[in-house]
Structures are given as C-alpha cells and as structure tokens.
Design brief:
10 helices, Arc Repressor Mutant, subunit A, about 350 residues, two-stranded antiparallel ribbon
C-alpha cells in the first residue's frame, strides 16, 4: 500500500501570489491587500509609451511629468510654446515655464532658436522620451578600443605561428579601456560678448517726472505678457524712448498697446531689443502746433466815484471817466451845458 509509482507525473504547483497576471483583479475580501489595484486594458490605437524613468522620476514635479507626457503624445509640428500650453491647460504661464525648465534640466526637452530663410526667429523644440541615450551611445563608441592590425603590432613581436608558445586565454592581459573623456582639460572656450541693445528715441527734455512715468509703464508690461519681464538695466535703457512717446502727446494706454500688440507666438529671446525696435520703428510724429490762447482782458474791480458817487471799474479809487472829463474841461475854461 505504501509503494509509489515513479512514473506518475508530479502534482502541478500553484502559482505564487506575487505572479498573478497583471490584467486579473484579485478576489474581493482578501486580507492584507493595500495600495493601488490596476485594472488595465490593452491599448491597440491612440496610445503613447512612457518610461517609468519619467512617470516615477524622483526630482521632477507632477506638473513637469504630466507636461512631458502631453508633449510626447502630440504629433510632430504641434505648437508647444508657453502661450499655446497656457491656453490648453488651467495652469498659468509662470507654472508652465517653470515645468519646461525642469524638463530641460533633466534632458527631456531642448529648445533652440533658429532663423528662417525669411528672417524670422523661431523656437525649435525637441522632446525626448529617453534623455541621455544619444550621449551614452556616443560615449560608449569613444570608450571602445580600436583593434590593432598586424602592421601596428609592437616591434620585436613574433609574426609567425607560435601555437605551442601562445599563452592560454585565461592568462592574457586584459585589454585597456580608454577613458570616454580626456583627462587633460582642453582650451577654454571664448564667450561671445552680448550684443548691445539698439538705440531708442530721446526726449527733448528729460524731466524726472516724465522718466518716472516711462519707468512705471515698462515695469507694468509683464502683467500683459510674462516674456516682457525686463531687468533694471534694460528698463533704464528703454525709459527715454517711452518718454519720447509721452512727450509727443501720446497717452500711456496707447504706448502700452503699441508695445504689447501682435507679439511673436514662439516667444522672445531678448525682449528688451524687441521693445527698442518697436519704440524706434513706431515712433509717432510730434504733436500739431497749437497757437497760444489770447489773454483775456483784465477785469478791474468796482470803485465808487469821488465826484458823483457812481460805481465804475478801475484799478484804483478816484473819479469815473465822465467826472474826469468834466473836471478837465472846467480846468480849461470850457463851459458845459447843464445836464
């Protein structure tokens, strides 16, 4: 009764709990189950592959991870500038710009400005689903040593067959691995000096009140577009140009509209240079000449006449005009008919 049949197949082992199929939901009521439970369905159309290095990045913010996922799902040629993304999502331009900078820092995004054949400057955006892949392949190619040919062998080495004297494979010295980067620092790159800002119109009179009004107007442009955030040096350079507009009888609202209307959709690399060009190219003509208004005649106060006690207008008390004529006629001996 205790004899076992050795040819009988062994009993099938049950699948461990950790090897359950990812598409199968665990039974309800199982104790000890906590955390997320995935109920996945296989996608066949309209899907994007996202790596866990992005979805579970330890340093990227949630907004940056979601923004990178959205950009990778877009077809080539879709606009991904700050203004277009701010219209698409409820987050403001400042938060979207900060998220794009995070993606640039960690290699998921790169933005370069290029000039088209027509002279316009556009921003070329490259989204990477696996940052650092091109750099690592380039480094591995540089680190791989080149095989030596027979002509490059060391002098004095035997070129003939030496099968019985050849060392065993396990006794050969390891091949040297060349470093991916040179150990000696190369020559320092010369930094290209920044191009100075274009000249702006100058007012005829640089009053402190006029320059302060121009500075306040420039400081408020960032409320209309975040790209128009100017430094103190750029504001001081552009303030005389705005003062020249205000001096020509242009309202601050009209100046603000001329500077902020029809901005390039891809953003501006140097907003101060862009504003300097507009202040010069769109400078209005001087205000038309207006003749000074004629001065109104002097209206003297009322005075009491010393002769007839009647009221008259004059600069000082005395006699009225009629009494002065009578007084001057009697002094000359001229008789006036009785009134």
């Amino acid at each position: 009764m205790d004899t076992q049949n050795p040819s009988a197949p062994p009993c099938a082992q049950s699948r461990p709990a950790g090897k359950n199929h990812p598409h199968r939901r665990p039974k309800s009521g199982v104790s000890g189950v906590s955390g997320v439970i995935h109920d996945n369905t296989r996608h066949t159309t309209r899907f994007t592959v996202i790596g866990n290095h992005l979805a579970q990045h330890p340093e990227l913010s949630l907004l940056a991870i979601g923004l990178s996922t959205h950009i990778q799902s877009l077809p080539p040629g879709s606009p991904v500038d700050i203004r277009s993304l701010a219209k698409r999502f409820p987050e403001g331009p400042d938060r979207i710009a900060a998220a794009l900078r995070e993606l640039e820092t960690h290699g998921y995004l790169s933005r370069t400005r290029e000039r088209t054949p027509t002279g316009n400057i556009v921003t070329r955006t490259v989204s990477r689903n696996q940052p650092g892949r091109h750099a690592e392949s380039h480094a591995d190619h540089r680190a791989r040593p080149k095989p030596q040919s027979a002509s490059q062998a060391e002098p004095g080495s035997h070129q003939g067959p030496v099968a019985h004297h050849a060392p065993a494979p396990e006794q050969r010295a390891p091949e040297p691995i060349w470093p991916a980067h040179p150990t000696t620092p190369g020559p320092a790159k010369k930094r290209t000096p920044r191009k100075p800002l274009p000249a702006v119109p100058q007012p005829a009179y640089k009053g402190p009140g006029l320059l302060q009004a121009a500075t306040d107007l420039l400081a408020g442009l960032r409320r209309h577009d975040p790209d128009l955030l100017l430094s103190a040096c750029d504001t001081a350079h552009l303030a005389p140009g705005v003062a020249a507009w205000l001096e020509r009888d242009t309202s601050p609202t009209a100046v603000r509209h001329a500077l902020t209307s029809d901005l390039p959709p891809e953003g501006m690399r140097r907003p101060a240079a862009f504003l300097a060009h507009r202040l010069t190219a769109k400078l209005p003509p001087p205000a038309p000449y207006r003749a000074p208004a004629e001065s109104s005649p002097v209206r003297h106060p009322l005075q009491n006449c010393d002769g007839c006690e009647r009221a008259f207008r004059g600069p000082e008390p005395g006699r009225c005009g009629e009494c002065r004529r009578l007084h001057s006629g009697s002094a000359l001996g001229v008789l006036h008919p009785p009134g």
